[in-house]
Design goal:
By secondary structure, the protein is of the alpha+beta class. It contains two helices and three strands. It has a three-stranded antiparallel beta sheet with strand order 1-2-3, with no helix packed on it. Helix 1 (41-68) runs antiparallel to helix 2 (72-83). The structure holds zinc ion (ZN).
Length: 84
């Protein structure tokens, strides 16, 4: 998914779906009504932070599963990913 906005001849459009966001060139919403993409700098920062948290949670639960199932090499790979 692309984030943010693009400037067009008709005003501002969503960078992801190209849907028209604003005709007067002023961004009044944080997310695209059509595709849900974050548009403003704040919304993009929140979105990326949230994505990172979800990724870490997923990796941690995968790590717990691999430890429970005694799959050593998989646990090591996940530990490496969590460090990055
Ligand atoms: Zn959109």
């Amino acid at each position: 998914m692309k984030y943010g906005t693009v400037n067009t001849e008709r005003g501002i459009a969503c960078a992801n779906c190209n849907s028209s966001i604003s005709q007067d060139g002023v961004l009044k919403q944080n997310f695209c009504e059509k595709c849900g993409a974050p548009l403003s700098v704040e919304a993009i920062a929140d979105y990326e932070r949230h994505n990172d948290e979800i990724k870490k949670m997923l990796l941690k639960s995968m790590q717990e599963i691999s430890i429970k199932n005694n799959t050593d090499s998989f646990a090591k790979i996940l530990a490496q990913l969590l460090e990055d």
